[in-house]
Amino acid sequence: xxxxxxxYNRTASGRLSLAFAADLWKSLNGNGSSASNQxxxxxxxxxxxxxxxxxxxxxxxxxxxxGIEQTLVEADVACKTLLPSQSIALCTTIDSDAVxxxxxxxxxxxxxxxxxxxxxxxxxxxxxxxxMVPFGDGDSVLSAAALxxxxxxxxxxxxxxxHTTWTVQGLSSAEPQDHMCQSxxxxxxxxxxxxxxxxxxCTTVVETADDVVxxxxxCALRHSARLIxxxxxxxxxxxxxxxxxxxxxxxPLVALASPKRKAS
Amino acid sequence: xxxxxxQTHNRGIFSRLAGFLTNPFGVMSLVVLMYAVKAVxxxxxxxxxxxxxxxxxxxxxxxxxxxxxxxxxxIWVAKKPASSAYPFGRKNxxxxxxxxxxxxxxxxxxxxxxxxxxxxxxxxxxLDQAVRALVPLPEHQPLLMSSSTLPWVLALTIGSIVLxxxxxxxxxxxxxxxxxxxxxxxxxxxxxxxxxxIITLVGxxxxxxxxxxxxxxxxxxxxxxAIAHTGWGLFQSGxxxxxxxxxxxxxxxxxxxxxxxxAGVGQISSLKTFQIGSTAVCILTITTEHxxxxxAQLKYGIEYHLTQYLLDNGFRDCELNLKFExxxxxxxxxxxxxxxxxxxxxxxxxxxxxSHIIVCDLENGMVVRTKQEEKPAAMVAxxxxxxxxxxxxxxPAPRPLDGGENIAVLSSTSYQVDLLGxxxxxxxxxxxxx
Lengths: 264, 434
Hints:
The structure holds two protein chains of two kinds. By secondary structure, chain A is of the alpha/beta class. Helix content of chain A is about 40%, strand content about 15%. Chain A has two domains: about 5-90, no CATH class; about 125-255, Rossmann fold (3-Layer(aba) Sandwich), CATH 3.40.50.620. Chain A is elongated, with a radius of gyration of 21 Å. The mean pLDDT of chain A is about 90. In chain B, about 55% of the residues lie in helices and about 15% in strands. Chain B is α/β, with parallel strands linked by helices.
């Protein structure tokens, strides 16, 4: 079961992230929740701030001040998400295994798996649509695909696998799939096997788009995709497609942590 | 070798013939030919058997030839490419033909209904006289047919019906395929001619086989109604396009629905649609909070789905004009009572314990600007002057301000200013690192 987490921020984008996270959590868990799978709300602890308050004689020691803040935040989250308190778990450390719904972290932390909700407050509020997984010729996509297939299976959504390739000079075939390099074809074969194993309906789109990011976003928009799942490659130093897509996408996007940089 | 040459030659002839038969000018040429044959035959046979009805119908077909020639000219004008003077082309000219043919069909239906009514009244002389005393009606002319002329009339009428119905279907199909409203309208007019001819045939057959010539008239009234319906439809569609009526409520609802299904669309603040020729024109204003780079993608997605919908629903082309705007900012001001120590700020548990006030400008609930002020001596006057409505403190049960009935003191859920959007996080982290 996919773990969903959200960073607590009492801002407009924080409220949208919280609404999105709660909606996604409800879609994945229905009404029931187990202790191992609550909606995690990450609240950073600022002990120095609590010490300042304690220093001016407010409400006792720093620990008590932190406790008051946690109580207020829990009540605020329960009020905004309409979730029962047993479904919410307030935590002070980020769970690196969870999908963290946040508007800022996707741009700041490459070591975490972050879902950028793109100002949407629900995943399927505008209607059902596929999850899109763009892939290249590297294995980094496999972790993204695993998450996408898991979400697709749990939410009963189809998956679109997207690849864009350069045309092979001298090859006359008009079929873009024929222009794919061998390693990309091997990745596609693996992804299709994973889809079959997960029992997810899967279609493949291969193009020779002029621009990779534009091509994948336009394909997602044509298919009315509701989520794009991409993984960061630790090998890419300049021109990361995930960062470029994050800056242009109107569709929520999950940026997976690079396996070698993943936070422990 | 010779055989292959012949085959190639034949293939060339067939492809040219197919091209001619699917070309609007080719189709209209066939229509002109059909009317010419019908006019010559009807005028000849009508004068030979001394039937003014058939002869008159022949002259009506001569008028149809002129109409078909007018349609050819209209199609030629409509096909001219768009120019700077005519940015949408001249396709709307076709709808003048729809308007004219629609009006002509309405007149024809009234005339035919009148003739049929007069025919029915002739079977009740008393009522006929009473009606004529009130309304001037045309003279009733009964069918005068002998057994020797019957086969001629039957052959001519049946042939004419078959030609009218077949050619009209053909005209409408090619007209719809090419998006030529004038050709479709002319096809409807040809079909109406065919329906009138069917009624003539029913009258002739009714009189000679069943001795029931009255049968023609009630059926005639029904056909008059059908013609009026077709005429009104053509007139209405022509007028709607020429007066730039919207493309239809159901289409507009679907357009709104498809736009709102696209991620990133806030709302559709305005939607205007109209039609030029067979091109649908949609002018939309979409509210979105996204920025330029994302809007370019959003525009692509919306255009893709709307184009697909419009082309699937009978329009041959579409012209989409999308304008994106930010939502109304909904500006308001709030403030936080804060404590400052070593250049670090935290939300104070009460106004009394605060050292500063951070005044926040909100747009759509988002803090877009903050300003720190030292705690003023006259707090209420200061907040009222800044038009602050809500003041936040870090306390589960905040106390109201003395004398500040218009300012609500509310509970901030956190004391951390960066969780409340009151600081630039980059600046905050730099400060912490320093």
